[in-house]
Amino acid sequence: MTAPAVPRTEDLVGQSIQGRRVGFGDIAFPAALLLALLFALLFLSTLLVDVFVRAWDALAGRGFSVVTNPLSLNAETAGLWQSIMGSLALTAVVAVLAFPIGVGAAVYLEEYASDNRFTRFINTNIRNLAGVPSIVYGILGFTIFVRFVNATGAGGGVGGKNLLAGGLTLAALVLPIVIITTAEALRAVPAAIREAGFGVGATRWEVIRYHVVPYAAPGILTGTVLTLARAFGETAPLLLVGAATGFFSVGAAGPLDKITGPYTALPVTIFSWARQPGADFRSLTAAAIVVLLAVMLTANAAAIILRNRFERKW
Amino acid sequence: MNDDRGNEHPEAAARPDAETRPAARAISVGAVLRNGRPAESGASPSLIFDVQGLRAFYGSFQAVADTTMQIREHEITALIGPSGCGKTTVLRCFNRMNDLIETARVEGVVRYHGVDIYGEKVDPVEVRRRIGMVFQKPNPFPKSIYDNIAFGPRIAGFKGNLDDLVEESLTRAALWDEVKDKLKQSAYALSGGQQQRLCIARAIATSPDVLLMDEPCASLDPIATLRIEELMIELKRDYSIIIVTHNMQQAARVSDRTAFFTVDVKETGMRTGRLVEFDATEVIFTRPHQKQTEDYITGRFG
Q1: Inter-chain Cβ pairs, chain A and chain B, closer than 8 A
Q2: Least CB–CB distance from A196: residue in B102, B139, B206
Q3: B265 touches A at CB < 8 Å
Q4: Of A199, A202, A313, which has the smallest distance from its Cβ to B155's Cβ?
Q5: Which of A78, B89, B103, B185 is least surrounded by Cβ atoms within 10 Å, i.e. has the fewest?
């Protein structure tokens, strides 16, 4: 009569799929990740708060004159106008040089060059170049670009240590990064799109021009803007190719003289102001850092807007 | 050069070295010979492709063994066979699509209207303008519906009215009514079946001579599949169509002639595709000459 109670199916299934088993790793791992994130954020916020607090005296006391005044040894009137202009001009030179050359090199490597030992060697070394410390590029700029600029007669009054040499140096510095990011964007273009292009009788050039590059454009653009931001903030190589660490005024110099003459850049000014004695300059340095960050954020925001325009989703 | 002989003398398939081939291969060649000839005298369509001893390699891997077959104008030729039997590779040999794969290498002769498309002076771009292709997965360009169709004619230097051509191409692909109000919209907004018909419209917009279709219905539902099949039968009045398909019912439904490929596994593990039998579709599906073909079409394969 008392037959062994046959367990009901739903009880068995219920037992097996109900109840959460939470192991140590389920809690500890996300917690460790969150901690890492908070740690990074802590550094960033400390840095920002510290800079803003230090900059407060100069920014509140002087207002926009910190931005619009020319460089000066007098902490009362010193401003960043030449530095900002110098940095923007440098970045423009870098963009004009590094963007077409870098994108061109990447398109060649990805689309035209055959995959053999030689191109693999080149690819590896472009990656290595991207990791070379920037001071090494400064020395390259000092020994080659400064002389080159001087030899072409564009040396100005500074023997070639001008915006052009600085721009060339920074362009060489970011060129490998432009190539790498562009190559990655090109590699992400689906093979199906290329095949579709070739399938309707397009030449290689037409496939690249009308399908591959437009598809990769947002990625190329993003990469390029990030590299420009890198160039914008670069200091060490510029110290070697003549960005003035002291103070000067280009005064009423003509536009050509401004390009071939002495120059400076925002990070270089920060470097030189940081070495000045006195509380005034300490606050000015912090203010200059705030300006640098603001300019970079503006540039990055502009880049994102630009990319979204290109990235019209189809 | 004896480039013209493929057209006039289909028996040119009897290459002098045919006898020297291994026995197994001689059988398949025999099958081809038997059927490669215009069997019924009278209104036999002329040849569009005359393939002689085609072999395809990827690096040192041989994907397709000696293939000899003749494909006629205004017919639908189906290539069937198990996965890895090289039928897609063979299809891609017809418009030099394999050129795009760096390691790919093709030997043998593929005569298109008597001219070897692997000849030294042949421009593969011109070949592809005449021999259009529809791919397994619908692959519209990330552009508008209109631009998808217009791209091919534009780069080919089309001088006529592009709007009319777009409408005509979409109409022929049985898509016009569904998209005529949204030509400027993204091609990606279309359903899979619509995208595939868009790809067919794109392929016929350049007015090719031949359409190559690589499993065009593989990612479509039965209704979309049916529409594409109807479309193929529509299109064969003006085009010659070669289709790769995994779906034997599809081959039986739409094609005039069917080529059955199989895959031989060597001791080295190399898997090489081989043409077993090529004949009228009705023959292949009702009274094939090869046992392998029969086993495959009756589902007793492997």
Answers
A1: 72
A2: B139
A3: no
A4: A202
A5: B103
Q: Range of A244's domain?
A: 85-263
Whole-number pLDDT of residue A48: 92
Task: Find chain A residues with C-beta within 8 A of B152's C-beta.
Answer: 200-202
Return the pLDDT at A312.
63
Q: What is the CATH number of the domain that holds A148?
A: 1.10.3720.10
A196 and B95 within 8 Å at the Cβ level: the answer is: no
Is B96 part of any domain? no
| Structure-block tokens of residue B277 | 């039998």
Q: Give the structural domain span for B260.
A: 5-11+22-36+45-81+105-297
Tens of pLDDT, residue by residue over A129-160, are 998 999 999 999 888 988 888 888 777 667 77
Supply the DSSP string of A205-239, one letter for each residue.
HHHIIIIIHHHHHHHHHHHHHHHHHHHHH--HHHH
Which chain A residues have a beta carbon less than 8 Å from that of B139?
A: 190, 192-193, 195-196
Residue type, B8: E
Dump the DSSP string for A102-148: HHHHHHIIIIIS--SHHHHHHHHHHHHHHTS-HHHHHHHIIIIIHHH
Torsion of CA A68, A74, A76, A79, to 10 degrees: 20
* B contact test, residue of A200, A203, A310 with most B CBs within 10 A: A200
Q: For chain B, 302 residues long, give each residue's pLDDT as a single digit of tens.
A: 444 443 444 444 444 443 333 333 333 333 333 333 333 334 455 889 999 999 999 988 889 999 999 999 999 999 999 888 889 999 999 999 988 888 899 999 999 998 999 998 999 999 999 999 999 999 999 999 999 999 999 998 888 899 999 999 999 888 999 999 999 999 999 998 899 999 999 999 998 999 999 999 887 888 888 888 998 998 888 899 999 998 888 999 999 999 999 998 888 888 899 999 999 999 999 999 988 888 888 876 54
- List, in sequence order, every residue forming a beta bridge with B258; answer none if it has no partner: B78, B279
Query: What is the number of structural domains in chain A?
Result: 1
Work out whether strand B47-58 and strand B104-112 pair parallel, antiparallel, or are unpaired: antiparallel
Cα–Cα distance between B293 and B284 in angstroms, integer?
7
Residues in chain B closer than 8 A to A192 (CB atoms): 135, 137, 139
In a domain, A281, yes or no: no
Verify whether the Cβ–Cβ distance A193 to B142 is below 8 Å. Answer: yes
Does the beta-carbon distance from B156 to A201 stay under 8 Å? yes
Partner residue facing A200 (CB), from B126, B152, B187: B152
Q: Is 0.85 exceeded by the ipTM?
A: no
